[in-house]
Specification:
Number of helices: 14
Strand content: 5-15%
Shape: globular
Distance between the termini: 39 Å
Largest sheet: 6 strands, mixed
Radius of gyration: 22 Å
Number of strands: 13
Length: about 375
């Protein structure tokens, strides 16, 4: 994770702090990492930690919600988040994948009282002999189930990353809803919780009060989506820039993208060239033939290579980029929906509204009402 301070607080206004162990790590003694306390957070984000966890997903949550954000000065209409890392036995070292320990000072009471609760995994997705006593097949404890139900009952936003969906499902929060998880776990989630409508082909699913995401990196997309919901596209893009990731990937994008196992050929370089050309000409009519010409490829070859590279079709990618470009315009009081639709290349406001609803799961007008600055 970027810019962690292992000797003390990350910075004023952060949700957590990471501290180094008192003794230097040795082969026989793992590193101990302690999560610190932020006083008086305005919007508490609580993330669940457990023994045996792989900490990438936890790190994503800390990176997005726990760092000081001086780059957001003047951009925030509301204070930033406060982050609490919670465990079933607060203060007890938790062994993590990689040979170090993690200590969380907060318990499940604080998790149940948070505004946003994030479950980045469960102890043992596949269950079997490894499931601890008193827990379900995935290692989900009754205490965690009760905390999730309590948080949801008080109106908290409940979020899972990767295998964390099994905890939400165990709490009954996904019954009758669409949800996703890592593609490796999708069939198991469907079998274990048949009331859940499992979609293994997307990066994340936003049901408003309950959100689920796919594998580890999709957690970044979902966390940025939460920031976008709470603070708008400009703030989310600024956070993404510091993260050095794309500011917005459509939640409906495929989880699995074919990876090149050979050196990139000259003609494949044209894909990146065509994408940059498209971004520079979003307001113009864009067709596969025009994109293929920018890539110096035939239409058929371009379609094949673009899909293999990105996991989506050229025109769907163009639509997503146009929607992303429209967000900052909608947050401004200038321009009607019709004018914004034309500015980002949609042939009509009706077409813009249709695609905006598919990608953002709301209408342009509702988005402007929620996130517009100075918009009545």
């Amino acid at each position: 994770m970027a810019e962690q301070n292992v000797d003390g607080p990350v910075g004023a206004g952060t949700g957590t702090a990471m501290g180094a162990a008192a003794a230097a790590p040795t082969a026989s003694r793992p590193v101990s990492v302690t999560i610190g306390r932020r006083p008086e957070p305005v919007h508490d984000v609580a993330v669940y930690a457990f023994p045996g966890m792989a900490t990438f997903e936890l790190g994503v949550v800390v990176e997005v919600f726990g760092l000081a954000r001086p780059e957001l000065a003047g951009l925030l209409a509301a204070p930033w988040y406060g982050l609490k890392v919670c465990a079933e036995r607060p203060g007890t070292p938790l062994d993590a994948v990689g040979g170090f320990t993690l200590t969380a000072p907060y318990g499940l009471d604080e998790l149940a009282a948070a505004d946003t609760v994030i479950v980045p995994g469960v102890p043992n997705v596949f269950g079997g002999a490894g499931a601890p006593p008193g827990r379900d097949a995935g290692g989900v404890s009754p205490a965690l189930v009760e905390a999730l139900r309590t948080a949801h009952g008080r109106g908290a936003r409940i979020v899972s990353i990767c295998g964390g969906a099994f905890a939400l499902a165990a709490a009954g929060l996904l019954d009758g809803r669409e949800a996703t998880t890592h593609w490796r776990y999708a069939e198991l989630l469907r079998q274990r919780h048949p009331a859940v409508r499992v979609n293994p082909d997307v990066l994340y699913v936003d049901n408003g009060d309950v959100l689920t995401s796919a594998g580890s990196a999709a957690g970044i997309d979902l966390c940025l989506h939460l920031v976008r919901r709470d603070h708008g596209a400009k703030v989310a893009n600024t956070v993404a820039r510091r993260f050095v990731v794309a500011p917005h990937r459509d939640g409906g994008q495929a989880q699995f993208v074919e990876a090149a196992v050979r050196p990139v050929e000259d003609e494949e370089d044209g894909i990146a060239r065509s994408m940059q050309w498209a971004l520079d000409h979003l307001s113009s009519p864009l067709t596969i033939s025009r994109l293929a010409r920018a890539a110096r490829m035939s239409d058929r070859s371009y379609l094949r290579h673009f899909t293999a590279r990105t996991g989506t079709s050229p025109m769907r990618w163009v639509v997503t980029q146009r929607i992303a470009a429209s967000l900052a315009l909608l947050e401004s009081p200038e321009g009607t929906v019709e004018e914004i639709a034309a500015a980002v290349g949609f042939e009509s406001a009706a077409t813009f509204r249709h695609h905006f609803g598919r990608v953002m799961r709301t209408s342009p007008t509702s988005y402007r009402r929620s996130f517009g600055r100075g918009v009545a």
